[in-house]
Structure formats: C-alpha cells, structure tokens
Amino acid sequence: MAYEKPGPQQPAHALMPAEKDAVLSFAGREDTVDYSLQLLAIKGAEANAFYLSASSVRLILQENGLGDDRTGRVRNSTRRNKPDRPDELTGPNQCWCWDVSYIKTDVLRVFWYLYVMLDEWSRKVVAWRISRYHNHEEAMGLIDDAIIAEGLLDIDKENLPVVVNDRGVQMKAKDVKQMFTDLGLTQTFSRPRTPNDNPFVRRESRIVELFFEPVVPSTAPTGTCRMSNRPV
C-alpha cells in the first residue's frame, strides 16, 4: 500500500478561491495600488470585500507574483516620481496645491472637512470651503471656486496653473480627473508618504488639525460653507 499522510487533504481553514479573487481584484484597483499589506487587509474588510489578515493577503499576492515587491515598489516610486512642478515660479497662478484638513468636533469620529486651494508663489488661499462631506463632489467645487475666483475661465490653457495634490481618494476620483482635463489644468500627484512633495498646504492643514478647538456639530454650518477670492 502506498503511504499517504493521514487526515484531510485540505485544511478546513484554507483560503477559498473566491477570497483569493477578491484580494487580487481589490489590490489591483487604481486607488489601492499604493496600499501596504496591512492597509489592504483593513480597507478590504471595511469595503466588505474580504476578511483576511495581512499575512494571508501577502500569501495570495506572492502566489500571483505580486507580493514580494509591493513595499519596494512604493519606495521606488517615492524616489522616482516627484510632482511635475514648474522649475521656477515667477508670479501667481503658476502652481497651486490643495488638501483636505480634518476639523475635530466634540463627537468622537465626527469631523468637519476644510478644503483649501493655495497659490504656491504668493501663499494666497485662492479658494476654501468647509463641509461635513468628504467626497469628490466637494473637491470639484473647490476647483471650480478657485478658477472663478482668479478669473481663469477664459485664458489660454498653457497659462493655467499646475495643480499639486496628494493621492487621496477624492483627488484620484475619475470625475475629478475628468474635470482637470476639461478645464485644461495639469494635475500632478505627490509621492506616497512624502509630505515634502506638498509642503505648503500640508503645513496649513497640520496647523488646523493640531491647534483648532473642537467644533460643536450643532453650531457648525449645515452642508457647505465656502468663500473665494479673499486672501488669508
């Protein structure tokens, strides 16, 4: 008789094909390409895509030739892909940067969101808005406010500013990218986990997040409060 290892041939807790497919599909999305293994596991669970540990995610990616260089790929892209800014700024509206700050409230895990568009040459806030919503619609509204406030609707596209932003979901949304294309604006992205790529507006964001007193939600505006064309 041929020797066979006793017990079941496949462990009861083995990864299912559907789980592997879910991990591969989620990890291959454009908005998750820079996620670490730990973040993939967390965000996958939050999205109800799969419920697996980071080590299981690593195993699935390695089996498909994707896991070994995930961290290295982020590090390499960090070295290579700096935002494509103008080499030298000589005046306003040549390069803008924008970000979203979290304003604490007196309710746990409830925030207001401050959207700011900053001119890098003058440090002027060309547009801002505070909203209870953290989504790409508000981001598109900020861009629209800035263009109108600076009177850039009717100028040649080559004279429009380059816009620097990080790789947040709102910045990478398809509708936002399409808006940049339609307006003739150049959108360029900072590198993952490299705050020095977008230092000017990030400094303002950190000041807001660290030093503003918590806001009582009931006393804050209902919806969106915005103001354009007024320097801060």
Automatic annotation (TrEMBL):
Signal peptide: none annotated. InterPro entries: Integrase_cat-core, RNaseH-like_sf, RNaseH_sf, Transposase_IS3/IS150/IS904. GO terms for biological process: DNA integration. Pfam families: rve (PF00665). Residues 70-90 are annotated as: Disordered. Residues 88-232 form the Integrase catalytic domain. One of its GO terms (molecular function) is nucleic acid binding. This is Integrase catalytic domain-containing protein. It comes from Chlorobium phaeobacteroides (strain BS1). The lineage of its organism: Bacteria, Pseudomonadati, Chlorobiota, Chlorobiia, Chlorobiales.
